[in-house]
Amino acid sequence: MTTRTQPWQGIHVATALAFNDDGSVDHASFGDHVAWLAENGCDGVCPNGSLGEYQTLTAEERAKVVETAVAASPEGFTVMPGVAAYGADESRRWAEQARDAGAASVLALPPNTFKADDDTVVAHYREVAKAGLPVVAYNNPYDTKVDLVPSLLARLHEEGLIVAVKEFTGDVRRAYEIAELAPELDLLVGSDDVLLELGLAGAVGWIAGYPNAIPQSTVELYKLATSGVAEDIMAALPIYRDLHPLLRWDSKPEFVQSIKLSMDLAGRKGGACRQPRLPLPAELAARITADTRAVLAKGYK
């Protein structure tokens, strides 16, 4: 397994965010959750991502989430906040806030209000990089309509603007082209349901959803999938098959509600989402409940 030598490597959990009954952010519960993830073998957290419902937070809430994550993190456990925003200036300001709060790196989407061309994307990352923290690019063309194709990632890396990419397209073939065009750019698994495939392809990190509910088992799976040892890959396969009915929900539109439901069933505080996300339809909730209980019944935790 590749040794974690940089703060953006290893398993960073895209943390779900709990709310109080009145809809306010439950910062105490969130801090406890960060500490619990550290205790259970994860390497860091990514607060203020989509799983953390950052789009629904006020500026004050969003800043405090980062501060809470940093305060709850033990030594060596790193925080990589999401800094997505409609404008490059705002993304830079969130990167500066993350820096000042003690974060080790940031996770940055490209412009997400229109289909930006390559020059616009590069200008955006130049602005975010001014904050001085290592920048991990987040490629999610489904939501942003901007695809950070391997050639564009290579351009961003060559200019020194990004250190890694969270690859969320699900197209595992990209890993090899990225390695050819930008061999020093770190590849991070971006969706849970391609963990094994991208681990085999050389990923050195995972920005993960389902460790929110079952951290120990997913940490074990990550270590096996990225070791480069044939025996470990064979050991990973049955675990991957067992967990895949849950892992695939990380790349579905209902991923926030799904992971929060699995957290509730595993004894963690997932709870309700803020609007516009609504509760899961009964049939879908029943399916995720059954899949989660099946995984827990096999001893995964």
From TrEMBL:
Pyruvate binds at I207. It comes from the Bacteria. One of its GO terms (molecular function) is 4-hydroxy-tetrahydrodipicolinate synthase activity. The active site is at Y138, K166. CDD domains: DHDPS-like. Keywords: Lyase. InterPro entries: Aldolase_TIM, DapA-like. Belongs to the DapA family. This is Dihydrodipicolinate synthase family protein. It comes from Arthrobacter livingstonensis.
